[in-house]
Amino acid sequence: MNINQLRLKNKKTYMIVNSNTFNNEDDFLDAIAKELKEGIDIIELRESCSTPDKIIRIGKKIRELCSIFNTLFIINDRIDIAQIIQADGILLNKFSIDIFSAKELTNEKIIIGKVVSNNEEIEDAEKKGANFLIFDEEINAHTELPFFILEKCKKL
Length: 156
Prior knowledge:
Largest sheet: 8 strands, mixed
CATH architecture: Alpha-Beta Barrel
CATH class: Alpha Beta
CATH superfamily: Aldolase class I
Number of domains: 1
Radius of gyration: 14 Å
Order of helices and strands: HEHEHEHEHEHEHEE
Number of strands: 8
CATH topology: TIM Barrel
Strand order of the largest sheet: 7-1-2-3-4-5-6-8
Strand content: 15-25%
């Protein structure tokens, strides 16, 4: 078991968040803090419509909150931003760089997740060394919500 698998051990709740429906950043961060107090184990920032500057600004604040609550912090798709804000991990989708490149860029120091949609993709991600898998249909079913907890997250 490698260090990233150990970091995922005993983590059960994975929440994806985005700020799109909040009036301002403070309301968004207050809502995240409330969820973290409730015991969320892993939080992913998914800001697909935001500028890199905004993602970095918000991400640094969420990183601080996650540190307080001992919660893992994952960035969706942007390995550069994950490194800048020292996120615990990255979630790669089918349009992202490949798992091997992500591991190489980060010296295997961050958790790498992969979005999958079928058995072939699951097997491929496992072989390439993803630390966890997220199932595409679950993300697509909830993209309009500001926060949602995934039911199907597989730790490898």
